[in-house]
Amino acid sequence: MVIEWRTGEDGQSGEKPLKRAAEYVRMSTEHQKYSTDNQSAEIRAYAARRGFEIVRTYADEGKSGLRIDGRDSFQQLLSDIQSGNADFEAILVYDVSRWGRFQDPNEASHYVWLCKSAGISIHYCAEQVENDGSMGSSIVTTVKQVMAGEYSRELSIKVFKGQCRLITLGYRQGGPPGFGLRRMLVDEHGNQKGLLDRGEHKSIATDRVVLVEGPDEEVALVREIYRQFVEDQRSERQIADWLNAQGIMSDLERPWSRGAVHQILINEKYVGHNVWGRTSFKLKTKHVRNDPSEWIRHDSAFPAIVPQPLFDAARLVIDQRSQRLSDEEMLALLADILAKNGSLSGLIIDEYEDGPSSSAYQSRFGSLLRAYSLVGYVPDHDYRYLEINRALRRMHPSIVKDVIEGVRAAGGTAIQNLENDTLLINEEITASIVIARCKLTRGGSRRWKIRLDESLRPDITICVRMDEENMHAHDYYILPRMTLAEGVLRLADHNGLSLDAFRFESLDGFFTLAERAPFRKAA
Predict the structure, then answer these.
(1) Beta 288-289 vs 438-440: how paired, if at all?
(2) Which residue from 475, 474, 472, 473 is spatially nearest to 502, judged by alpha carbons?
(3) pTM of the predicted model, to two decimals?
(4) Fewer CB within 10 Å, N or C, the chain?
(5) Which of 499, 497, 520 shows the shortest CA–CA distance to 448?
(6) Which positions ≥6 away from 144 have C-beta within 8 Å?
(7) What's the pLDDT at 31?
(8) What Gene3D superfamilies does the entry give (predicted)?
(9) Mind listing the pLDDT tens digit for each residue in 467-482?
(10) Is the Cβ–Cβ distance between 351 and 388 less than 8 Å?
């Protein structure tokens, strides 16, 4: 929203003319207490004290500050400045976080630089330090930008952990219930409070949502879909045509498609399992399909509509479609799907008649991305990090083996716990080994994010930081338990003495620590 203010002429001669300024206000859905009205009131008080006249307002209401996408007014502000249409010489913002909570502080600084290069200064009205370009001001502003982005990261981690815990307790976390199921609102003691219709959400923080059986006729239809697919050997397309011929609509009030039937046949919620995290959408990044090992689940969380043996039989039929095809035949089918649709996705593949499912391609070729690459398709978004993560997981056992051999070569002992891959060194110290993928920021800086299993609580954590190609170890951090207060550790090239004091070019020093030294017996 952009508002152009009309101001009257200054009727008093001799007064210093007011400097023309624009105000930018933003409110995200997570921070309703910082309303745009409150921000504007503070900005106008600042303008009155500093001799500014606000001639234009740019307002993004209900917009996240994580990135520029979706912030139409912010984009319009930058466009006006870059095109030379800005009729003001300053921008007034409530504070650094309202400018944005960009995950890379370089991005926030880039937009500031665009404004300053056009001769337009930026004032953060609620901050204690003037944004005057001095060394002290630049340092404080950069720290504030990092803190603004870090707040969102920490909030994302906390929310994710909370959601994982609720899933393991059997509660539903978002999404439509599906045909034959309904969402039931329960209180903190598990007492049912009533069904939630489409578009309705819980309003009390302590309330939770579980899945329950829907109307009897829908439950019967779900079981009939499974029966026809397994016993009558009818395809998803034939079942969809049968449902549409009877005038039966899907749970979304739409005619049935092959993919809609297929989703019923592969979704574990119909056998009562609560599965979450198949895809991720963290910090406003694009949705990504997660590896099944990363899914969060609670089996038998709610009543099953379909018996487990019938569900397994349906999945067996779907899996066997690809087992009778060679790799070349599967790729030929995938190339045909690409030619007909112009793009590929899991949903597009699942809609293809009598072809293998997207999960079959993932199982056969290791991932959908590898299957895409084999037919010459490159998705718009770069998902290569999924392949890198899988390669690093395959690398982990060899690194553990190298550590064990290094400790033993130094004269110590190392015993591996096969359940969690931790090491017991010299029968005294427990150690865990984690590998961190290297990621390059837009500015070319290297970043590493290390996920720690807080349930292990080892005495020492060996963090292996990979190089830019993620092929070889760049360096190592040997961190004692006392330095690890959080479950996620984010590292840059330089992290301050509190962390870099534990950085090593190799593990030779660690092996030396494991060496056993003989002592003379006391007389």
Answers:
(1) unpaired
(2) 475
(3) 0.47
(4) C
(5) 499
(6) 95, 96, 97, 127
(7) 46
(8) Putative Large Serine Recombinase, Chain B, Domain 2, Resolvase, N-terminal catalytic domain
(9) 888 888 999 999 888 6
(10) no
Close Cβ partners of 310 (under 8 Å, ≥ 6 residues apart) = 226, 227, 230
- The pair of three-digit structure tokens given for residue 476, joined into one six-digit string: 């190592």
What's the pLDDT at 13? Answer: 47
Show the tokens assigned to 141: 């502003």
Q: What is the β-pairing status of strands 121-124 and 90-93?
A: parallel
How far apart are alpha carbons 249 and 240 in whole angstroms?
10
Residue finishing a domain among 364, 381, 398: 381
Residue 431's contacts (CB-CB under 8 Å, 6 or more residues apart) are: 403, 422, 423, 425, 458, 459, 460, 461, 462
Is residue 397 in a domain?
yes
Residues 408 and 492 in one domain: yes
In a domain, 101, yes or no: yes
Total number of domains in the chain: 3
CA distances from 408 to 88, 283, 365, 425, 434 (A): 70, 44, 38, 9, 20
Distances (CA, A) of 487 to 173, 243, 435, 461: 22, 48, 14, 12
Average pLDDT over the chain, rounded to an integer: 81
Average pLDDT over residues 286-311: 79
What is the domain range of residue 394?
Answer: 385-513
Q: The tokens of 34 are what? A: 């910082």
> Where is the domain boundary, 127, 149, 171?
149
Residues 6+ apart with CB under 8 A from 109: 142, 145
Instruction: For 77, list phi and psi in degrees, rounded to 5.
Output: -60, -50
How far is CA 438 from its chain centroid? 17
- Most confident by average pLDDT, 221-230, 329-338, 441-450: 221-230
Nearest to 47 by CA among 110, 514, 39: 39
**Domain match, 345 and 470 both:** no
On whether residue 202 sits in a domain, the answer given is no
Residue 82 lies in a domain: yes
DSSP 292: G
In a 10 Å sphere around its CB, with 0-12 CB exposed, 13-18 middle and 19+ buried, how is residue 236 labelled? Answer: buried
